[in-house]
Amino acid sequence: MKIMLTDSQLVEWLKEDIHSWDISTTDQRYKRTVSADIFSREAGTICGIEVVKQVFQLVGIHPNDIQSFVIDGTDVQKSDKIMEIKGEARHILTGERLALNLLGHMSGVATKTRNLVDRAHLLNPHVKIAGTRKTLPGLRTLQKYAIKMGGGDTHRMSLSDMVMLKENHLAEFESEQLAIDTAFSTKSFTHKIEVEVTNPNQAQRVAKTGKVDIIMLDNFSLEQITPTVELIKEINDRILIEVSGGINESNFESYVKTGVDIISMGALTHTTKPLDISLLIK
Amino acid sequence: MKIMLTDSQLVEWLKEDIHSWDISTTDQRYKRTVSADIFSREAGTICGIEVVKQVFQLVGIHPNDIQSFVIDGTDVQKSDKIMEIKGEARHILTGERLALNLLGHMSGVATKTRNLVDRAHLLNPHVKIAGTRKTLPGLRTLQKYAIKMGGGDTHRMSLSDMVMLKENHLAEFESEQLAIDTAFSTKSFTHKIEVEVTNPNQAQRVAKTGKVDIIMLDNFSLEQITPTVELIKEINDRILIEVSGGINESNFESYVKTGVDIISMGALTHTTKPLDISLLIK
Amino acid sequence: MKIMLTDSQLVEWLKEDIHSWDISTTDQRYKRTVSADIFSREAGTICGIEVVKQVFQLVGIHPNDIQSFVIDGTDVQKSDKIMEIKGEARHILTGERLALNLLGHMSGVATKTRNLVDRAHLLNPHVKIAGTRKTLPGLRTLQKYAIKMGGGDTHRMSLSDMVMLKENHLAEFESEQLAIDTAFSTKSFTHKIEVEVTNPNQAQRVAKTGKVDIIMLDNFSLEQITPTVELIKEINDRILIEVSGGINESNFESYVKTGVDIISMGALTHTTKPLDISLLIK
Amino acid sequence: MKIMLTDSQLVEWLKEDIHSWDISTTDQRYKRTVSADIFSREAGTICGIEVVKQVFQLVGIHPNDIQSFVIDGTDVQKSDKIMEIKGEARHILTGERLALNLLGHMSGVATKTRNLVDRAHLLNPHVKIAGTRKTLPGLRTLQKYAIKMGGGDTHRMSLSDMVMLKENHLAEFESEQLAIDTAFSTKSFTHKIEVEVTNPNQAQRVAKTGKVDIIMLDNFSLEQITPTVELIKEINDRILIEVSGGINESNFESYVKTGVDIISMGALTHTTKPLDISLLIK
Amino acid sequence: MKIMLTDSQLVEWLKEDIHSWDISTTDQRYKRTVSADIFSREAGTICGIEVVKQVFQLVGIHPNDIQSFVIDGTDVQKSDKIMEIKGEARHILTGERLALNLLGHMSGVATKTRNLVDRAHLLNPHVKIAGTRKTLPGLRTLQKYAIKMGGGDTHRMSLSDMVMLKENHLAEFESEQLAIDTAFSTKSFTHKIEVEVTNPNQAQRVAKTGKVDIIMLDNFSLEQITPTVELIKEINDRILIEVSGGINESNFESYVKTGVDIISMGALTHTTKPLDISLLIK
Amino acid sequence: MKIMLTDSQLVEWLKEDIHSWDISTTDQRYKRTVSADIFSREAGTICGIEVVKQVFQLVGIHPNDIQSFVIDGTDVQKSDKIMEIKGEARHILTGERLALNLLGHMSGVATKTRNLVDRAHLLNPHVKIAGTRKTLPGLRTLQKYAIKMGGGDTHRMSLSDMVMLKENHLAEFESEQLAIDTAFSTKSFTHKIEVEVTNPNQAQRVAKTGKVDIIMLDNFSLEQITPTVELIKEINDRILIEVSGGINESNFESYVKTGVDIISMGALTHTTKPLDISLLIK
């Protein structure tokens, strides 16, 4: 699994941090060759190794001088060494901030996802923990990749991936049936259809159309969920059921126990503490 | 104060979300003209209005059909209406996610900043709450702008803004004096110099060079800070003093009381819950 | 349905044609305001109207001076007027070539698709005519959009859309079962799986896994197809069946009659005569 | 002869095909090192070797692992091996489609051009077969390069290359003389002038101005051409004569026999069957 | 004559000057609507009006609030008002520097060119004053356009415009004849050929090939030029003759008198004092 | 000190010069491996070595085949060899023009700066010679870097670097005091404030605010400067004093003698003769 993060994207991000040039390291002394360790100050799931390698190459470090000790998706402990970089001090200092911002953020997403997935699988090994489209602009691929490295499901990457009919969509039609028929006949055969419902009756109507692959229970109360799941599966047991809305790290387990197939949480990508990772020149 | 957020940057972000086209709104019915309200589901400081206007124009909404009821930096209450958009349903639905992701994130940063600034100013009206370079790649200008809208200080925008000598820099020289002399003689007259120190003795040595504008106390214990501040001010009362490291929302007030000039926190931009903002088609 | 064709993409294409400036229209006389008709020299399905409008605006024509008489997907007859443009002669002459190249090509794809769809639906109104990923670099969205405007199915827009296991993929596994199990457990719940098979036995094995949404019969002889369709549908009648390979405009109807669900043809986008469209200054 | 096809252009094309990442090859098994042959399934003229090398490097193949057995412009037979690639299966599978789309298309243009050039030169070894500006947006340089590799003449690369006055240009002036005088006095000395004429009298008037390098006979009937050629050459034998319009692969030879210097055909680039080229993992 | 200067190019240049935002105009007072005059502090030829309009629109000024009193190519006197802009002070102040840098530079090139052209035409009304490829990176089109507005000849816009064989080219062949024959047979019929010669004998040999459109006398002494011109014209009076090398504003007239057709000077674009133009808020 | 000049920026500049391809070097003979010397035809300060290396790599020269004999900032004599390049003739010829344009221009700026700095330091070793924002669009970083290599001060890199209040800014406020108070309270603590004054009284008022780091004397007569310097230093001797306006290479020394800290000159970057540098294939 390989993401195409272009040099020109990374250079743009480097220039965001460097602007003209690093005015703190213009002296010749900063050309001294040094070694630097990148290590984690807390336990977590590492993500972003390849990206960081690319960053350091772009600021002038030779590929052979960039070593990594883990791959994306590896769990590390506090103080574990993740990478070692050798090169001119000025190069390392110039790339440091972007490298750590990326590595910290991506590892933060992966760590949070893995924690939730692990907790969920104790209760139900088949449930999927999924992200949403509530990502940070420009970072979707990196964030979705980090979700995947943490064991989560990426959900839709974009509006082109799967048809999804929400409240605002259904409102344009006289009935759910019509909305779904229309979507079914205009979409490509390669795409699935998911429909968001707000109450059990609607869930039932939608399931009965026979044209829906996934039903999302939006902001259902916990008590409503299990009966609705049973209702839908009775009609068509191939329909997957997703819940979303109002789920947080504390009430999370209750949702896992309802028997839904997928739990999606925007907070995987929009409210994430970065993993605390440092670079130290030796 | 005006940020140049280019159409092409926004279009790139739109395409990240749209990819080919929105396969859920291809039917003619989605061409119906509708009105949509954007409103906040919680109290906070709004930021990102101009950006959101630009987003909706790019998906095809006429500028005259985009109304805003607040400006960036305004505090709103739960349920307050922020904007109203009129246009084809498909256009609104296509721009919705990026618009809300930006507005929510920027308002989240502004809200967090304002809360901290307000709490700080009760104790010391002169202290500045500042961000750091721990921003999300590609979002620095937006995040720094949100800090400013929340009443915070942007700190360095890039490595070109101010000379900053940290532990890793000083390590390349025999003495702080030499490191600072070198920086002073190579930098432009337009730039200030900040030096990071890790103990009171070092703070004293650095202050005595007479060439430093700001001293940052890095990971000092709370007890060490006030005496160090006094030490420095005695040597040169024009030197500004910044603290950073280990500061969070709960221990925050203790740092304010130490008498430092600036408290900087990476978490303003790297760990921010977005403000909960929704769009509803009427 | 709206494609985001960015101004900067179109400007790049304009500059490809203009380079420095149009050296044939530098004289003041070319500033005269003129009217130009765009009309079709043959019958066909028009596609690209919005793109052409954007092109002429970018070379300096006012939006109000660009009129269109049809929308994308409309069938026209020989000599039908499609658009009328008013503006400085030099502007019209500078945009003409790109506008016609786009309109001709997209209409060519739409026309070819519609012809095939119409012929197919006489025999089987449920069969889908689909494109492939054999598109021209940089033009995929426009070409897929043209297929859709001609009544075809877009098939995969990219490698992120649907899992597709071909001969080269299956070869990496000991069995189809293992390849499919692996794909099923790593893909997102939002994605379908399609598997390409080269003989009826393999089709049967793949169908029996119960995890496949579409089976593609690759380069099957005409005689093999119908029995294989029946074999698969007997195992699982929800599996869609696609044929590809060796299909051309003359043998096309025989494939429609086999009872497959989808016929895909690379030639929809890679070998297309443009519709003959001209611009004449009045 | 070297075209500057930028990495960033190719990456854009790769991303068009890959979008987020290739969801079919995420499993570890696809990291196995394999060898793949690229070979032609029909006879033709190969074009695009260097571009394909660049594509495979961009997806992660080492330059030393990409071998080519022919250079651009080489004629191959059915089943001839063109290239051999060694690398991780997932890398080869990710680059395959773009590589083949480019190689097939460019070789298609080169093959068509060479066929026509060869047929023409049997009758008149001095006639040039030229392309036009009817190219596909974004692909002009590649298509013109393919024409050149097939032995054709590129004609104008852009509107900056040569002055060309067509019907729509002449219409802005009282006389051809005035139009030509104006163009002659405003153009750079580095540029030639070509004028399109629609009848023999106009050809004569244009030739007599003494300021025209090339005359294009637009949509002349076959019978008109030879006498007009003689007429022009009598006035000025240094004027080159081009024909265009209504020429196709079947009536083509008749045009060659008329004695014109240049035959230009838009179909070289706008209606081209790609050469059938495959990649097979061994 | 219209140059396609893209918004995104100008925005890039604006961002070069603005970086994050203009920190000097963040106060609300800078939102006051003001009027500003752009006027010349010295006599000269104005060039860049359309570009400046585009710049001010991009920083937020309404097109109707940007007035110009001259067009590109107009000669102005000291103190002449060139443009008037109305808008928020902060917008005008933000765009001012780029606008003046462009207007000053382009007018500087146009002014220098016109002075030389005027002086030359007093002595020989047919001689052309041409630029070279010694332009500033990224500014070629603007600089060549300014040359044209000043009455000069643009010469080659790029390496694709005309074949030009210099000393370094001829050195790769056994004889000039072979070099020229090769170039003649590989170039498109749309291109001219120019050959640089370093002595009269070589000029003669080159002229005799009959395949050369322009001969450049490179670093010839003044005395050598007239006889060489006569020599060439005798062989073929359609060959244009260019001189280059060692020509400056003081010895310039002597070269005009030699009877050459074209005098080219890199200094038109590489050593140009900008016209002194100011913006004053009223 | 390292500037991030992106490959994609350089490729854009290469394409500006190459457009489609170099039509003069398409023959196979230009593939011969040759050596070329880059040498200076006059004495000066070299700047741009790293950039030139990057250019030649981008046209296909191997890094090991590019040798440099000096580093940026080195003074060379007439005929000194600066670099030696080995590679295919066509590659060297294709990169030559851009390489020399950059090297000549940057060295021209560095040479001019060094001359002025050297002359100034004979009279006052502490005075700084600074650039301005009057740079050429797209070339600011390169030009400022060249100033630094010549021993000058870069001054503001952009509008984000330092607050600078000029006449047009002060005009928006009732008093200088208010303008300065406003700027002081809205700017980041990382930024300095400079104020431009037009007469000694204003200088005095500004100095007394106690919030200003630098005062610029704008277009002061020579006689006014020294008394104003004394006046300011008496009020606050930490304030730096800059002069600008009307300073040229001939009256320059008089300004140095006035005792100001900084002399800034737009002409460092906007009116610069390139250093005369040539490339010769051996």
Q: Supply the number of structural domains of chain A.
A: 2
CATH topological fold name of the largest domain in chain A: TIM Barrel
CATH architecture of the largest domain in chain A: Alpha-Beta Barrel
> Helix amount of chain A, in percent?
40-55%
Please provide a brief summary of the model.
6 copies of one chain form a homohexamer. Helix content of chain A is 40%, strand content 18%. By secondary structure, chain A is of the alpha/beta class.
Summarize the structure in words.
The structure is a homohexamer of 282-residue chains. With 282 residues, the first copy, chain A, is an alpha/beta fold. Chain A has 2 domains: 119 residues, Aldehyde Oxidoreductase, domain 3, CATH 3.90.1170.20; 148 residues, TIM Barrel (Alpha-Beta Barrel). Helices cover 40% and strands 18% of the residues of chain A. Chain A is built from 10 helices and 12 strands. Chain A has a 6-stranded parallel beta sheet. In chain A, strand 9, helix 8 and strand 10 form a beta-alpha-beta unit. In chain A, helix 3 packs across helix 4. The longest helix of chain A has 35 residues. Chain A is elongated and about 75 Å long. The two termini of chain A are 33 Å apart. The interface between E and F is large, with 64 and 63 residues.
List the helices and strands and how they pair.
Six copies of one chain form a homohexamer.
Chain A: H1 7-18, E1 33-40, E2 44-45, H2 49-58, E3 66-68, E4 75-76, E5 81-88, H3 89-123, E6 128-130, H4 140-149, E7 163-165, H5 167-170, H6 176-186, E8 193-197, H7 200-208, E9 214-218, H8 222-235, E10 240-244, H9 252-256, E11 262-264, H10 267-270, E12 277-281
Parallel strand pairs in A: 6-11, 7-8, 8-9, 9-10, 10-11
Antiparallel strand pairs in A: 1-5, 1-12, 2-4, 3-5
Helix pairs in contact in A: 1-3, 2-3, 3-4, 7-8
